[in-house]
Write a structure and sequence with these properties.
Strand order of the largest sheet of chain B: 6-7-8-3-9-10
CATH topology of chain B: Rossmann fold
Number of helices of chain A: 23
Structural class of chain B: alpha/beta
Distance between the termini of chain A: 30 Å
Bound molecules: adenosine-5'-triphosphate, magnesium ion
Oligomer: heterodimer
Shape of chain B: globular
Order of helices and strands of chain A: HHHHHHHHHHHHHHHHHHHHHHH
Strand content of chain B: 25-35%
CATH architecture of chain B: 3-Layer(aba) Sandwich
């Protein structure tokens, strides 16, 4: 039987790989793979091969390694973190043990004459693939953390020990907790018991250490060496070393500075791993029920997160009232705004916007009256700048209540009596509304709080004109940006689809993602260039004739018109593509 | 009225539908039958304007689907085999959305009887996630019927319904056909098709093997026998293992 399971695993893996390779015949995937591989090479492999430190190790210059006394502190600290994680694993769960099986696995394996132990085995083997991959990736990304000593290989194996043992531990813990639950011990009773135990251990340790314990003095914090020494005395006195020992065994290989130390650390690490392994295989709890519930929930949740619907991910979807009343007749695009608003937070509605604007307005005017609070103005404007930048650049990736989350409903959308561009326009309205509202609020804050006292030409009236001029620019700019991810969903639906389908990841996906992030910037720059250039030229030439404020106002109108024309062109192109689009054909491997 | 001439659909080098031509008049119900993979779903998706045909012309209620897709789509409704719904909209909100898309004025007056006819009126404020598969299908049907389409395409409409649901579905289709709607439906449940369809079209590997009224097609494959079931005809026509 186990052979069959292994066969299932390996053939799935092979077929996935094959379909991936076959897909590279399509140029869009090939280009993605090349860019992704190049990125990977530049970011990680080259550095590893050259043995150079990674950008992540800030403060590390040259071949300095951590001094041995610090290393033991780090080891103890690592063990402590591991212990905390493990303890949390005993406190947090509130459900019966469930190994996560895919829905297909459940349909095929659970009714099959397979022993439970074999299923656990299968799951363990299965998770090994993910664990090894993760260990390799972490090692690559951290550039092997040369300052710890050791090599990429010892660190990779070290990570594997940590992840694999944790995996086993959580599995065993979840079985044990299930058994407790079956014996009528509720999660809350278990939690209080675990917390009580933790408190008891902490108390005993504290009492033990009472004599030697002292709060860190200024001298201890003078340099990292003295701080480490202080930490070291704390961690190596009393019962703490004994408590930490098993966890230290697990992180030992990772922290081994050289090969002999690594080999010595292997033994204890293997022992802990083996003990866990035996423990897990011996605990046979009926996990099937829980697994089924879990896999359904997981599928729904993953789908939701991939769609950017944090609302669904954070719990069951609940019916609720729409943001506004939808009349039966009128522009059909508004129907999409109405529909997609229902899939976001209930806060996103006109009333909230108006209320926030009023609060900001009153607050801003109020601060203006009391010069003592000028500091607040600086803080508020800095906050608003940050908010605006974040919304402008990351907003389109986060607010996904558009075609990206409606991809699977394409067939139904296509039967509607609408042109492609109408569907596309309707779909982007919700994120445009959300992002524009945030940007408008940021603009309002900036308008109220920024005072360039040193810039004489920036008169209050001019400031107002600039602010008002930006108001209509904001939504068109947002729309322009949102065209890029929506175009991505239309051109690479398989890619957009993988955002919800966790099993599909790969270098070509990474490459495509990079292409789109870069693409978004390029589109914005290219789209803004003519408009901004024209506006600057116009202001420069006409300001002497009609005055600066009027020139700015007219230029803003020009920018809006120009960007709107670009948005319209983009929507039209996307619409053409939408009308020729066949989702079922695209989603075939 | 549906007029199809020379419809061809290719997926790359693979031809899923070859040179299909037929006409369905108002009041007729055409049953599209054929083995798995014969091209029924592909045909229906082409007719509903979901995927562009590779070649051929389709006219829906007199409107050319390629030349004026909006006018043609205004007259049609497509019901996929797997109901596609919006996760965040309740039953009632679905209808409000669809009403706005089609510009159905005062849709509440139409929606309520429709929900009652389909027996999901008591679920009006629930989300699709809370509905059973059959109820989801009913909701999809309610959405499609709201704008009183003249032409309807059903892909496997009877699968997944309970016996009573099947009877209601059949009655519902027949009622709309009698009221002048043009209906095309695909199904593998041949004994049920016999009760609903006035015409059948047998497809095999994308090719039309036979079409006409139930009587015509039976006569062609009956070899003079009387009372041959559609199932028997299907097996003879598609060269199934039985013959
Ligand atoms: N997007 C696609 N790309 C390539 N081939 C496709 C695509 N969609 C369908 N096909 C192929 O076209 C043929 C017809 O498929 P279709 O779904 O229309 O069959 P069907 O008659 O509806 O079958 P069933 O009775 O199983 O529903 C099949 O061979 C199928 O593999
Ligand atoms: Mg089909």
């Amino acid at each position: 039987m186990f052979g069959a399971l292994l066969y299932l695993r390996l053939t799935s893996l092979r077929n996935t790989m094959l379909s991936r390779v076959r897909r590279l015949k399509q140029p869009k995937y090939l280009v993605g793979a090349i860019v992704g591989a190049g990125y990977f090479y530049l970011m990680f492999f080259r550095r590893l091969a050259a043995g150079r430190p990674s950008v992540h190790d800030q403060g590390y210059h040259g071949p300095v390694t951590v001094p041995p006394e610090l290393l033991s502190t780090l080891l103890a600290l690592g063990a402590l973190i591991l212990l905390v994680i493990v303890t949390l694993g005993w406190i947090l769960p509130d459900q019966r043990a469930g190994l996560t099986f895919s829905e297909a696995e459940i349909a095929f394996l659970f009714p099959a004459p397979v022993r439970r132990r074999t299923l656990i085995w299968y799951k363990l083997i299965n998770s090994q693939i993910a664990i090894m991959f993760t260990a390799a990736i972490i090692t690559l990304v951290t550039g092997s953390w040369g300052f710890l000593g050791g090599s990429a290989l010892t660190h990779g194996i070290g990570w594997w020990f940590i992840l694999a043992t944790l995996n086993l531990h959580f599995m065993g813990a979840s079985f044990a907790m299930t058994r407790l639950m079956d014996n009528g011990i509720t999660p809350w009773r278990r939690r209080s018991a675990v917390l009580g135990l933790v408190a008891l251990v902490a108390l005993v340790t504290l009492a033990w250490l009472w004599r030697d314990l002292r709060a860190p003095a200024a001298a201890d914090l003078e340099s990292y060496r003295t701080a480490a020494a202080y930490l070291n005395t704390l961690l190596t006195s009393g019962p703490l070393p004994w408590l930490l020992r098993p966890a230290e065994f697990v992180v030992g290989p990772f922290f081994a500075p050289d090969t002999p130390a690594f080999l010595t650390a292997l033994g204890p690490a293997l022992l802990v791993f083996a003990l866990h392994y035996v423990w897990v295989l011996r605990s046979e709890v009926s996990f099937e029920d829980a697994s089924i519930a879990k896999s359904e929930k997981r599928a729904a949740k993953i789908a939701a997160v991939r769609e950017g619907n944090w609302r669904a991910a954070s719990g069951a979807i609940k019916a609720r009232a729409p943001a506004f009343r939808l009349a039966s007749t009128g522009r059909p695009e508004i129907a999409f705004l109405w529909k997609n608003l229902l899939s976001t937070f209930p806060l996103f509605r006109l009333g909230t916007l108006v209320a926030l604007a009023l609060v900001i307005l009153i607050g801003g005017l109020w601060i203006d009256v009391f010069p003592g609070y000028r500091g607040l103005q600086t803080a508020a404007s800095a906050f608003a700048m940050f908010m605006a930048g974040y919304t402008l650049f990351l907003g389109p990736q986060l607010a996904r209540q558009d075609f990206r989350s409606d991809l699977l409903n394409t067939d139904i959308l296509k039967t509607y009596p609408l042109r492609g561009w109408q569907v596309m326009l309707g779909e982007i309205l919700t994120p445009v509304a959300i992002l524009s509202s945030i940007l408008w609020l940021a603009l309002l804050i900036l308008l109220l709080t920024v005072h360039f006292h040193q810039l004489g030409w920036l008169t209050p009236s001019l400031r107002l004109v600039i602010g008002l001029g930006l108001v209509p620019v904001v939504p068109v700019l947002c729309a322009l940006q949102l065209l890029v991810p929506n175009a991505a969903a239309l051109l690479f639906p398989a890619w957009a689809q993988t955002m919800r389908n966790r099993s599909e990841r790969g270098i070509e996906m990474l490459g495509q993602r990079l292409i789109f992030i870069a693409g978004q910037f390029v589109v914005i720059v290219l789209a803004l260039l003519p408009a901004a250039g024209g506006a600057a030229l116009f202001i420069f030439i006409t300001q002497h004739w009609i005055g600066l404020p009027a020139a700015v106002a007219v230029a803003a109108g020009g920018v809006v018109a120009c960007l709107a024309a670009e948005v319209w062109g983009g929507l039209w192109l996307l619409g053409e593509r939408f009308e020729k689009f066949d989702l079922s054909a695209e989603l075939r491997p | 009225m549906i007029e199809v001439t020379g419809l061809i659909k290719r997926y790359g080098a693979f031809t899923a539908v070859r040179e299909l031509s037929f006409t369905v008049r108002p009041g007729e119900v055409l049953g599209l039958v054929g083995p798995n993979g014969a091209g029924k779903t592909t045909t229906l998706r082409c007719l509903a304007g979901i995927i562009p045909a590779t070649a051929g012309a389709v006219r829906i209620a007199g409107q050319d689907l390629t030349a004026d897709p909006v006018a043609a789509k205004r007259a049609l409704a497509f019901f996929p085999d797997e109901p596609r719904l919006f996760d965040y909209l309740t039953v009632r909100q679905h209808l409000a959305f669809v009403a706005r898309i089609y510009g159905v004025a005062h849709h509440e007056a139409l929606a309520q009887p429709l929900l009652e006819e389909l027996e999901i009126a008591d679920k009006a404020d629930q989300l699709p996630g809370e509905l059973s598969r059959g109820m989801k299908q009913k909701l999809a049907i309610a959405c499609g019927l709201l704008h009183s389409p003249a032409v309807m395409f059903f892909d496997e409409p009877l699968t997944g319904l309970d016996p009573l649901g099947i009877r209601r579905m059949k009655d519902s289709i027949l009622k709309r056909a009698r009221a002048g709607a043009t209906v095309v439906l695909s199904s593998h449940l041949l004994h049920l098709l016999e009760e609903v369809c006035s015409h059948v079209l047998i497809l095999k590997k994308g090719e039309k093997i036979a079409d006409g009224t139930l009587g015509d097609v039976s006569a062609r494959f009956a070899n003079g026998e009387a009372n041959v079931s559609l199932e028997e005809i299907f097996i003879r026509a598609t060269g199934g293992t039985e013959s």
